[in-house]
Amino acid sequence: MSFSENVLYVIETPHLRGKTEERVRTLARQLPGLPEDADLTVVRTEKGKPYFPHLADRLYVSVTHSGDYWMCLFSSCPVGIDLQIHTGKNHPERIARRFFHPEETVFLSGREEDVFFSLWTAKESYVKYTGKGIAGQLDTFSVIENGEIKKEIEGIPLRFLEEFPQYTCCVCGGAEGPIRIIRIQDPV
């Protein structure tokens, strides 16, 4: 298999639910460099992260959805992605006190709500990268260092995608190089 990049499929729809495994498998079939006979069985870890057991060391996937978008990121390296829509219904300080590391809660104080989304997506993309899930994990580490959001966590790069206005999107890990974004209609 020669797939060695990052490909992000984006489906714009407000009501895309269910069929995740089927959708991931169908999208993976479109990736360049995968053999036609590749076993693209999709299963989920105990914490819900989808993966390909027969390609587990060569093809990685992470899924996110928020607002009008459902996204699936494929990479030749371990990866996590998170997307959050900016709404006025959030309570950043209350959520931060409950889920964030104390250093992050202090950092948020008096800042714009966009900063909250940057922290949240960085943290959630990292726990998706690790496959550990968010339950009981988000307050155990900080994405703040020297008064700013880190560019990496434990040597794993964080990248924010600016292509989605009114959303914050962060990718943790993945192959070096660009992330190719492909907007499509729902394939299933």
Keywords:
188 residues, alpha+beta, four-stranded mixed β-sheet, four-stranded antiparallel β-sheet, 4 helices, 12 strands, 30% strand
Would you give an account of this structure?
- The protein is of the alpha+beta class and 188 residues long.
- The chain contains 4 helices and 12 strands, in the order βαβββββαααββββββ.
- It has helices at 20-28, 92-99, 102-108, 113-130; strands spanning 6-12, 43-44, 50-51, 60-66, 69-75, 79-85, 144-145, 148-149, 152-153, 156-161, 167-173, 179-184.
- The strands form 4 sheets. The protein has a 4-stranded mixed sheet with strand order 4-5-1-12, covered by helices on one side. Strands 6-11-10-9 form a 4-stranded antiparallel sheet, covered by helices on one side.
- A hairpin with a 2-residue loop joins strand 9 (152-153) and strand 10.
- It is globular, with a radius of gyration of 17 Å.
- The relative contact order is 0.21.
- Give the N-to-C terminal Cα separation: 25 Å
Chain-averaged pLDDT: 89
Judging from the principal axes of the Cα atoms, what is the shape?
globular
Helix/strand class: alpha+beta
Number of strands: 12
- Proportion of strand residues: 25-35%
Radius of gyration: 17 Å
Helical content class? 10-25%
Give the helix/strand layout.
Layout: E1 6-12, H1 20-28, E2 43-44, E3 50-51, E4 60-66, E5 69-75, E6 79-85, H2 92-99, H3 102-108, H4 113-130, E7 144-145, E8 148-149, E9 152-153, E10 156-161, E11 167-173, E12 179-184
Parallel strand pairs: 1-12
Antiparallel strand pairs: 1-5, 2-3, 4-5, 6-11, 7-8, 9-10, 10-11
Helix pairs in contact: 2-3
